Amino acid sequence: MTAYSAPDLLVPDDLESSFGRAGDYPVRVAAFPAPRRPPPSDNGPVFRDPMMEAVIQRAHRIANSDASVLIRGESGTGKEVIARFIHRNSPRAGAPFVAVNCAAIPEQLLESELFGHERGAFSGALTQRIGKLEAAQNGTILLDEISEMDRRLQAKLLRAIQEREVDRIGGRAPVRLNVRIIATTNRDLELEVKRQTFREDLYFRLNVVSVHIPALRKRPADIPALAEYFIEKYRGEASHGRRHLSPAAMQALTAHDWPGNVRELENTIHRALVLTSETTIEPRALEVGPTSETHPDTPLKDPAGFTCRPLHLMERDAIIATLQRTGGNRTHTATMLGLSIRALRNKISLYLSQGIEVPPSAAAARTP
């Protein structure tokens, strides 16, 4: 049997040897050894704001259970960071943590990625491959952006969760699983259930415990802490020693609305370190957009009185207009606009979270 391997993925040494040969047993059963205690963990999520402190306390309380967890929050808020924190503080911490981005993997490949396949199961299946669910044996699997999964795969995932076993594509017998499920979404799953784009039974299976991560603009006390963390993270690239933000730069950071949340803040700090060689980082190096004192939908005027619309509004109008023209086809829209499908989906999720009406996907429109 060919061993499964992937970058930055720990697979127990005894995983493959614990399976019987095909035909020896009606069900191949993986050995479930006692969970191994983890090595000393890092400092965990960076936070100072009371809102985020409540999130960490909730995550810490549920870590010792095996309950499925649904982590909600806007794109870039740190949902995967919290998922890893839960894993590191759980009895499964010594076993694998496997992350699968359901939005980044094409639908045709996601089934094989999750469930694995046998040799010859389909054209191009030259070797056997263990899926990510099996690779996470005794540990935790993160299903990132679960709302992007096709309904057919949702049904197969639901069975795997209920029966605690997985059927490889082309397999002759199921494989028993001992895996904790953590799922994330930046969309309103209750609304997706009503739209029939997400299965209600799977929603209830995943939503045993829910953790909501507030947007960065709602936890301003975290901004200085995160900024300092990212300065330390990236200062080695520039080799200019320790940097610090000027009071004016820190004020600019705390005044910004951060539509991209922590991910946008990280990119902003990284960019500032690249653009300046000075010890003190000034506001001009940050290049942040409109501040929270200016509503993002407010037209801007230059000193001569010329009125223009913010670029992000023009982009939003172009995306929605193209979606209308393509009948909601996400793939065609992304191609026409020169975006990746993941970038388009993230922008659509942002618009939906802001209460903006977006044309439904072609698949959703065909659903009776």
In short:
The chain has 368 residues and is α/β, with parallel strands linked by helices. The protein has 15 helices and 13 strands.
Can you give a write-up of this model?
The chain is an alpha/beta fold. It has three domains: 16-212, 3-Layer(aba) Sandwich (Rossmann fold); 219-286, Helicase, Ruva Protein, domain 3; 300-359, Arc Repressor Mutant, subunit A (Orthogonal Bundle). It starts with 49 loop residues before the first helix and ends with a helix. It is 40% helix and 11% strand. Helix 1 crosses helix 2, helix 8 crosses helix 10 (261-275) and helix 12 (311-325) packs across helix 13. The chain is built from 15 helices and 13 strands. Residues 1-41 and 290-296 have low confidence and may be disordered. The strands form five sheets. It has a five-stranded parallel beta sheet with strand order 2-5-8-1-9. The protein has helices at residues 50-63, 79-88, 107-115, 132-135, 151-163, 189-194, 200-206, 222-238, 247-255, 261-275, 283-286, 311-325, 330-337, 341-353, 362-366, and strands at 69-72, 97-101, 116-117, 129-130, 140-144, 165-166, 175-176, 180-185, 209-212, 244-245, 280-281, 300-301, 307-308. The protein is globular and about 65 Å long. The longest helix has 17 residues, at 222-238.
